[in-house]
Amino acid sequence: MPELPEVESIANRLRMGSEQHPPLIGERILSAQVLWQRSVAHPSPETFIQKLKGQTIGDIRRRGKFLVIDLAGLTLLIHLRMSGDLWVESVSQPIAPHSRVCFDLSQNLRLTFHDPRKFGRVWLLEDPNEVLRELGPEPFDPLLNAEVFSQRLRKLHRQLKPLLLDQRFLAGLGNIYTDEALHCAGLHPLMSSNQLSLAQAARLLACIREVLGEGIRRNGASIDWVYRGGDLQNYFRVYQRTGLPCPRCGTPIERITVGQRGTHFCPECQPLAP
DNA sequence: CACGAGACCTGTTCGC
DNA sequence: TGCGAACAGGTCTCGT
Fold first, then answer.
1. Using one digit for the tens of pLDDT, what is the confidence trace for A97-154?
2. Residue A57 sits in a domain of what CATH number?
3. What is the pLDDT of residue A94?
4. Which domain holds residue A242?
5. Which among A63, A91, A186, A212 would be 20 to 30 A from A251, CA to CA?
6. CB-contacts to strand B (7 A)
7. Catalytic residue of the set A15, A261, A267, A268
């Protein structure tokens, strides 16, 4: 589910608080419960529960699609994958179905990792880089300029869509924002990365930042029963718009499957060079 | 190295 | 109405 803008929105809400709950910074973890064992990637659920007890929440931030929660000498990483979300509830509430890991906090608060599809994972690590070092650069990293991006694209021979989804190449893009960025840049999802000119690479990078920035401003996208909060879904240009007119030229949007992912594009604005 | 398929999971929507 | 198929914001692993 959540891509960079959704994870950033969630991290911001947990850190700053909202109308529903106070900021979680400084909250003490009184106890943790693991309701689905495989949701804890590391360490064992028993050790996870034992080490978390009495910890205090430091900063809460985002790296790629990971939520990063600093504790004292330990870091809690959470990846929401397809259907994960984080809820802040009262400890007096019954535990909702599909809750996988619960953290009971001071002030009668409970942080719940809710994940119907069970794909999400949490890690408790002394060194978060054990997991995070595999990630590519952040899309907004100022060191990632057009020249650097162009060279990274050019030294690989990969289709643009699967490449942009590869978190080792760039951290944070998922299916929605990749389709939107490729449409913005006028590039076909099957185009080979080594064929991009410097100008095309520069445009693609600018478009990635534009669509992610719009997603962050709108607090992400909310689709179906998963994740509520943002409203970017009302502004999609191609994603889930198969057969509807391209907002730029009016040609019906097409849907193909690339790397087993639904892929939406405008055949007029995003031609595939021979 | 690059790509495709299968696995991991549950819930919703679509087509007959 | 019922029921199976298709689909869903992600990632890993294996085979070619």
1. 999 999 999 999 999 999 999 999 999 999 999 999 999 999 999 999 999 999 999 9
2. 3.20.190.10
3. 97
4. 146-265
5. A212
6. A 38, 82-83, 97-98, 116-119, 156-159, 162-163, 192, 224-225, 258-260
7. A261
